[in-house]
C-alpha cells in the first residue's frame, strides 16, 4: 500500500476518532517505520499523470512490533491527566468570580461532545463491527462520566469559591505565610 492509499483509508475509517494519530502525520510515520525496519519498500507505482508513489509492505519485525503494540494497548489502562485539574487547584485569586461561569460553560462543552458522539455513533452504527460499536460506546461512557463529575463539581462550587476567597484573604494578611 502506498502512502496516499493509507491516507485515504485512514480518512475513510475516521482514524482520528479511534487513535491519537492524525491523518496528516501518516507520511512522517511511514518514513519513521521504514527507518526502524518495520516497513520495507516494495516498488514504485505511477498512475497516469499522478506522481510516483512508494508502495510499502510490513516486515517480519513490523509484524512483531504491531503484535506487541496491540497487546500493550489491550492490556494497559490509560487515563491521561486533565490540565483542568491543575488549573482548578490553582485558580487565579483575581478570577475566582469567573470560576462558576467557566465550569458551567465547560460542562456544556462536554454535553455537546457527548451529543455529537451519540449522533455519530447512531449514523455509523450500521457499518460498524461489534468491537467497533463497543469502542465507540467506551468513548460515550467516558463522556457521561465526565458530565457526572462536572455536576458534582458544580454542586461544590459555592464551597470551592468560598475556600479560594478565604485563602486569598489569608494570603493578603500581614505576617501570614501565604497559602
Structural class: mainly alpha
Average pLDDT over all residues? 87
How is the largest sheet built, in terms of strand order? 1-2
Query: What fraction of the residues are assigned to beta strands by DSSP?
Result: 5-15%
The oligomeric status of these chains comes to: single chain
Order of helices and strands: HHHEEHHHH
Total helices: the number is 7
| Annotation, overall tally of beta strands | 2
Radius of gyration: 24 Å
Envelope shape = elongated
Spatial separation of the terminal alpha carbons: 59 Å
Q: Which bin fits the share of residues in helices?
A: 55-70%
- How many domains? The number is 2
What this model shows, in words?
It is a single chain. With 179 residues, the chain is mainly α. Helix content is 65%, strand content 7%. It has two domains: 3-75, Arc Repressor Mutant, subunit A (Orthogonal Bundle); 83-172. The chain has seven helices and two strands; from the N terminus they run H-H-H-E-E-H-H-H-H. It has a two-stranded antiparallel sheet. Strand 1 and strand 2 form a beta hairpin. Helix 6 (99-124) packs antiparallel against helix 7 (130-172). The longest helix has 43 residues, at 130-172.
List its salient traits.
179 residues; mainly alpha; Arc Repressor Mutant, subunit A; 2 domains; two-stranded antiparallel ribbon; 7 helices; 2 strands; 65% helix; elongated
